[in-house]
Amino acid sequence: MSRNEEGKAEPQATLRVASGIPSPMTHDSRPTTRATHVAVIGGGITGLTAALRLAQRGCRVTLWERGESLGGQANAFPVAGTAIERFYHHLFQSDRDIVALAEEIGIGDRLLWLPSNVGYFADGRIWPLNGALDLLRLGFLPMKDRLRVGLVTVYLQRVRDWKRFEAVTAAAWLRRALGSRAYDRTFGAQLRAKFGRYHDQVAMVWFWGKIWLRTTSRRSPLEGERLGYFQGSFNVLIDALAQTARDAGAELMTGDGPRELKPRDRGGWNVVLDSGVVAVDAVVVTTPSPVLARLVPDLPEAYRQKLGGLEYEAAVVALLQLTHPLSDIYWLNVADDDLPFTGVIEQTNFIPPEEYGGKRFVYLSKYLEPDHPYFTMPDEKLIDAYVPFLKRINPEFSRSWIEQAWVFRERSAQPIIPLHYGERIPDHRTGLPGLYLANTTQIYPEDRGTNYSVRLGNQIAEIVAGDLAGEPART
Length: 475
Ligand SMILES: Cc1cc2nc3c(=O)[nH]c(=O)nc-3n(C[C@H](O)[C@H](O)[C@H](O)COP(=O)(O)OP(=O)(O)OC[C@H]3O[C@@H](n4cnc5c(N)ncnc54)[C@H](O)[C@@H]3O)c2cc1C
Hints:
By secondary structure, this protein is of the alpha/beta class. Helices cover about 35% and strands about 25% of the residues. Among the domains are: about 1-75 and about 235-310 and about 420-470, FAD/NAD(P)-binding domain, CATH 3.50.50.60; about 130-215, no CATH class. The strands form six sheets. It has a seven-stranded mixed sheet. Strands 11-4-3-15-21 form a five-stranded parallel sheet, with helices on one face. Strands 12-13-14 form a three-stranded antiparallel sheet, with no helix packed on it. Strand 12 (about 260-265) and strand 13 form a beta hairpin. Helix 3 (about 95-105) crosses helix 16. It starts with a strand and ends in a 7-residue tail after the last helix. Flavin-adenine dinucleotide binds near residues 41, 65 and 450.
């Protein structure tokens, strides 16, 4: 399996087949007479949404995606007669922007809302965790701690004023609220799982956002949680979004990306590709921030420093195709520190195995720093390191259950949200006329996710189109 510059594994050529999107370097041949030409760099959900909106606003749009298929982190590849995401994906009911987009582009009926099924792996066993009663049964914690966890959760569900959480770390706030023992076994374990060596630097805003999202994801407190999924995978959204953008006149290029972005003497930008130079009026970069810093060596120093001041956690995700179910839980958080992965996400306990020809699919997830050995270890070695621990999840597990295995890596998986993050977010306007940034580091106070990429794509298109039309800047 090859790995791209950001450390992201590219599944072999099969990806092209799965998504029904054009093969590398295909062009939409529609002639365009539009005056203003905008380049979009990156064909994830943000870039595709921005391309659609800019084209709808009358701009000529060319999007370049370096990977061989569109969709970025949400992209799916073909398995068992259908497709599955490289990185597990679902939606919350609070994800309104992506739901509205799905309706608009004609795939609203493909969005299913299915019951979630969450569990916790601690002290060597699975504890279901789907509501207050399950919380009271968490036998690996003393009853006093279970009650504290419940009370703190209810309290956080009611807080609306998140600004007060900008100045305190989640570790400090939660440790104080829960006591060290309960913190270490519950929310502390989750913070360590998501942020590795940064776990005690993350602001409480991030944690509040997670709790709040899940609360607003229930239609009523009595109803169990339902999560959203596109029947046929997130490629259903990606393909329809790409097609709608093309229908609006956008050109979407895959398998290519700029080497450099250079300001032109008389305004506008040159997109420097291996195959030639394309002159445009404006550029929207939707890649991770280090890519922008590399593409534009002459960024204003203050802006460059802002970009450099933000860090991302990386992710390694192994996906197993199994003959048997591993457990009956969809989303299993792992609290036992000696397991090498921190999440077990069994897709076929969310989407029925019948959708996958009866096969079972399980993701083994770990967020880590890019200098962690798992980030560069050969795929087979990583699977070898993980497999013995699957017996802990299900003592009957046997290696013979594994029919296929894949490993996917993403260098810029999760922006790290330190204290006072609101002041550290780089502006969409980079300080160089006509050059814009729209990426996951600018999603706040919510945690990054496809819904917020849609929102970001909508917002950046409005900003760029407004600037090009000479409208006064709104901040
Ligand atoms: C493990 C994991 C699980 C997740 N689970 C969920 C979930 O359950 N629900 C959810 O909503 N979200 C989830 N997300 C997050 C979600 O996928 C992302 O937040 C979202 O897809 C980001 O979209 P984006 O377009 O901003 O960025 P990306 O998807 O990263 O897109 C950026 C694109 O830029 C391209 N690129 C980079 N450099 C260049 C270059 N030089 N030239 C051209 N192109 C370039 C990249 O190839 C990429 O396609 C998950 C993410 C991960 C890693």
